[in-house]
What does this fold into?
Amino acid sequence: MREGIPTQEITPIEEQEGVEYIPQLEQHGLDGELFLSIWEKNKGDEHSFYERNMEMIDEMEKEEPGSVSFLNKKYGVFNFSRYPIEILLDQYRSHGDTGTPYGIVLYPLEDNHGAFSKKEDELIFRDIYNQMDGQFKIKILESSGKRDILKKLVNLKNFFNKEGNGHKISFAIIGGHGDKSSIKFGSRDSSDGVFNIEDLEDQSIINIRESIFEPHPTFVLNSCETGIESGMADRLKSKFNAEVFAPKEKTIIEDIDVVIENGAIRFDVQYVDNFS
It folds into this structure.
């Protein structure tokens, strides 16, 4: 089992939906059974989730053979249909670019409700990408737990800011089912799958934050209730000296505006009012 991948019991492969896609996935150098086990935890009530992922994978492979396997192994991306193909292909093509500033989209590997696979998020990501107009890059990551997140962030630092000659993370758009004091990336049955407010006091986080994030980074939380006073957003703001956008209720992001001036990036984030 690959590091960062949940180990709890899953439906036997012969009983899983989408089993007919395994040969096609394997032709692209992917672990078909592992992909299906991840998709099973993200489809929610959408029966076309497997098909949408396969269509995205096939389209990417036509444009850039090997791109899907690369992004899966380097960045942990499994749920390709969540994101615009423009961003995914640009992420693959510009992997060696250490001269352009960047930020990350960090989304959960597991989402039993399918909330992070909705078309709305894809449209918002595409709009952000277009607004940035190549002046900033977006790196998409998926993860199921704290240890894997930390490892991925350190890998980014070691590649994109090796010996201090590149860039650190300027912004992070983070998705995960949340409440005032936590964000869920994997199973709540595992302490590693939930990032709690107390984790921001962990010495390992304190030790690396300045080496991984630019001074005064921006965090955009697509996580319900994390903006409640004295909650996760306030703690992120104080610990990272950051600008933080987060909802105070159960809602989703409606719109993100981006302004880039003199090499600095600023965000304005709107959440849906009276969401139900």
